[in-house]
């Protein structure tokens, strides 16, 4: 953990008003998955993107079950801002434990599920998820390993969600043929 604090302290020195504002915005917009939920609902509205939206919805539900309700309490890791109280917080201390990063895991899960369904829409979503993950470090609310764990979990859940969406779509198609 000393390396992780060293990295966060190094990053802390680069704070700027513009990056502060952007990070605070994404903290609030992603606190309950609002960005990903809104994008999911938008995709569900159109027949062409409905399967991708369904995959994203499944990914978000899987994250809540696996990450938020199971892994966070299991690891019960304190946040870096709780251990180093000398830093100036830009946002309110997040509720819950640090590992895995919920912003990262849910964002990567939704974006990766989308990418597996639709590369054109999924690529910018993955970039957004990566940027949101970075802001968690910038805000000093997660350790780098929280972000890494969230990303790995997100990839696994996104892949599972995409597979579920494919299965449901293929099952519906087979029923329509019969």
From TrEMBL:
It is found in: Cell membrane. Its main location: membrane. It comes from the Bacteria. It is a multi-pass membrane protein. Residues 52-162 form the Phosphatidic acid phosphatase type 2/haloperoxidase domain. InterPro entries: PAP2/HPO, PAP2/HPO_sf. It holds the Pfam family PAP2. The chain crosses the membrane at residues 20-45, 52-71, 98-116, 123-141, 147-169. Keywords: Cell membrane, Hydrolase, Membrane, Transmembrane, Transmembrane helix. This is Phosphatase PAP2 family protein. It comes from Faecalibacterium intestinale.
């Amino acid at each position: 953990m000393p390396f992780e604090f060293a990295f966060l302290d190094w990053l802390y020195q680069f704070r700027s008003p513009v990056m502060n504002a952007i990070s605070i915005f994404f903290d609030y917009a992603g606190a309950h998955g609002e960005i990903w939920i809104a994008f999911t609902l938008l995709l569900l509205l159109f027949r062409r993107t409905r399967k991708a939206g369904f995959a994203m919805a499944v990914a978000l539900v899987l994250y809540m079950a696996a990450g938020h309700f199971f892994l966070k309490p299991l690891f019960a890791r304190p946040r870096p801002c709780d251990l180093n109280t000398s830093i100036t917080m830009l946002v309110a201390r997040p509720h819950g434990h640090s590992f895995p990063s919920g912003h990262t895991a849910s964002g990567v899960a939704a974006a990766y599920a989308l990418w597996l369904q639709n590369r054109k829409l999924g690529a910018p979503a993955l970039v957004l998820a990566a940027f949101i993950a970075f802001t968690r470090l910038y805000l000093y609310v997660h350790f780098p390993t929280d972000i890494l764990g969230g990303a790995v979990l997100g990839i696994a859940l996104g892949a599972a969600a995409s597979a579920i969406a494919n299965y449901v779509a293929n099952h519906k198609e087979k029923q329509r043929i019969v």
